[in-house]
Amino acid sequence: MFLYLLALLPVWFAYRWFRERKRVPGKEDKYVYITGCDTGFGNLLARRLDQLGFRVIAGCYTDKGEDELKKVTSQRLATVHVDVSDSQSVRKAAAHIETVVGQKGLWAVVNNAGVATPSAPSDWLTIDDFKPMLAVNLTGVIDVTLSVLSLIKKARGRVVNVSSVFGRVTPVSGPYCVSKYGVESFSDGLRLNMAPFGVKVAIIEPGFFKTNVTDRIIVTNNLKMIWSKVPPSVKDDYGHQYLDDLIQSVDVRFQQLLDSDLMKVVGCMEHAIAAVHPRIRYSPGWDAKLFWLPMSYMPTWITDAFFLKCIPKLKIAQL
Ligand SMILES: NC(=O)c1ccc[n+]([C@@H]2O[C@H](COP(=O)([O-])OP(=O)(O)OC[C@H]3O[C@@H](n4cnc5c(N)ncnc54)[C@H](OP(=O)(O)O)[C@@H]3O)[C@@H](O)[C@H]2O)c1
């Protein structure tokens, strides 16, 4: 029986490969709204979809990002200023998009904008450290989606949400994993909710890629800044060597895991938008496929034991 199933595997992969090759027609009439197009995946996706002939509406956070993107794209690409953490800005962008897309509706929204700082052990943080990240990574995703959902229903289009492997497994505390787990849950509920309307919802769960959110200097400076505000009693629990050990362990992990080929992620985003049969979840990156995803299916006591081995020793644990 097992051998029969094994023999069917190549047939299944061939069928899936063939099915996933089909692309939607009429790209030139399809509008795609992407948030966070100043840098990283969002920027590359805006350029790629523009090259393919889609009508891209690139949500930019800064004037600089907007100007630089315009220089390298066609006249077809339009930009709109949007701060996803500010509801007024989100609504203003949505009103503008409605006038641009008209009766065609919006083919896809890609909730890509995200931040990864402040990140640190939870007892180094206050609730005011959690709120700004949740406002961008989680409530920003919900707000942007709801602001254009009626336009997407009109086009029987797609919602593409950028989560992370950290939406499946939690090796670090702080707001990042909380926000990405929230994105997963929002997307799963929305997918069921929107299925009768012919709207598809896809989730992108990248592993570690070399962008600003994984920039060593930014991450290190963020840790130093948070440590400087940690109360002395907490610092004493961790020990004064802890910060250096933590920074060193971040360095090692980044060296082991960071992938420079951002097109692996962009290719998945493109597929979610352009394929007739998009996947529900995409896991770009070898670390996502071979390490984080298998970890997410392990019993919690195994993952806890593994992650505890990877973090530096606290002073209090050595007493
Ligand atoms: N890189 C990775 O390893 C990795 C892994 C898993 C998931 N992700 C996710 O991938 C997405 C894209 O990140 P990236 O890696 O491409 O990093 P990135 O280059 O920093 O891109 C994030 C973009 O979001 C923008 N942004 C920040 N705050 C915003 C706000 N309030 N409103 C609108 N835009 C805002 C940033 O603008 P500024 O540059 O002007 O701040 C930037 O252009 C994020 O959701 C991230 O969590 C990344």
From TrEMBL:
<keyword id="KW-0560">Oxidoreductase</keyword>
<dbReference type="InterPro" id="IPR002347">
    <property type="entry name" value="SDR_fam"/>
</dbReference>
<dbReference type="GO" id="GO:0008202">
    <property type="term" value="P:steroid metabolic process"/>
</dbReference>
<dbReference type="GO" id="GO:0016491">
    <property type="term" value="F:oxidoreductase activity"/>
</dbReference>
<comment type="similarity">
    <text>Belongs to the short-chain dehydrogenases/reductases (SDR) family.</text>
</comment>
<dbReference type="Pfam" id="PF00106">
    <property type="entry name" value="adh_short"/>
</dbReference>
<protein>
    <recommendedName>
        <fullName>Dehydrogenase/reductase (SDR family) member 9</fullName>
    </recommendedName>
</protein>
<dbReference type="InterPro" id="IPR020904">
    <property type="entry name" value="Sc_DH/Rdtase_CS"/>
</dbReference>
<dbReference type="InterPro" id="IPR036291">
    <property type="entry name" value="NAD(P)-bd_dom_sf"/>
</dbReference>
